[in-house]
Automatic annotation (TrEMBL):
UniProt protein name: ABC transporter ATP-binding protein
GO molecular function: ATP binding
Species this protein is from: Streptacidiphilus alkalitolerans
Record-linked PROSITE patterns: ABC_TRANSPORTER_1, ABC_TRANSPORTER_2
SMART domains, per database record: AAA (SM00382)
Lineage top rank: taxon: Bacteria
Amino acid sequence: MMNSKAAKAAKAAQADQADHPPAVAVRGLRVVRGGRPVLHELDLTVPAGSVTGLLGPSGCGKTTLLRSVVGVQRISAGAVTVLGQPAGSTGLRSRVGYVTQAPSVYTDLTVGENLRYFAEVLGAPRTDPARVAEQVGLGDRLEQAVGSLSGGQRARVSLAAALLGAPELLILDEPTVGLDPVLRRDLWDLFHQLAATGTTLLISSHVMDEATRCTRLLLMREGRLLADDTPAALLAATGAADVEAAFLHLVGATALTATADNDGTAR
Ligand SMILES: Nc1ncnc2c1ncn2[C@@H]1O[C@H](COP(=O)(O)OP(=O)(O)OP(=O)(O)O)[C@@H](O)[C@H]1O
């Protein structure tokens, strides 16, 4: 049985879907982990076809939010709607791709064996393993055991596995960590190619300079959303020269608001 707050959140999420169906609508999301609140009543949307960056310092709750969108996180309150269905619905399984921070492929199998195995599980076309290996620049590594690949190459095998079946929404948790600048650029180019064909990408990073590569930004701090905007609008609103400065500006603004809330005077 839903309480009235949860019912209200679900209704608001449905209303979002009716106007301009976003790929993801989060309303009043609250998550508690290890007895401590980690996400505090988050409200946000991820527009369909966008490359949305989820940025914030380590431990601010990015992975927890992504897990909530995938539907593998127990939530305390709120509603998360993904491609028009409640997060985690069975019908979303082949429509959402998720790449966790740690590569999640079998190290004792080759790249090709991994991709063929996951393609079989997903019911993806037989031609998909070769296609996705090409997409991530591993077309010439199909016969190599994953255990003998570099860390960056292994991360790209995980990404390739998530591209099997051409999901409509890709959720990537820090996909560029530890990659050299050329690979990082190539991956961001790939993300934009995917978006150009209609895929929505939600990508977390704690590297603020990746923000300029996104069409939309979600800035998070300590389980709260500081901004949900385009990079250009964020810079215009804060008068900052780059996203890192904008983030610090917003952190300062919330600190002042908190002080004002506490004793009625802004210091
Ligand atoms: N299994 C867990 N049990 C208890 N607390 C947890 C658990 N997992 C995460 N947390 C806490 O939840 C908060 C948010 O963690 P989360 O992994 O979502 O952050 P993050 O922004 O993704 O960090 P990072 O960029 O370092 O990956 C942190 O304070 C973390 O310590």
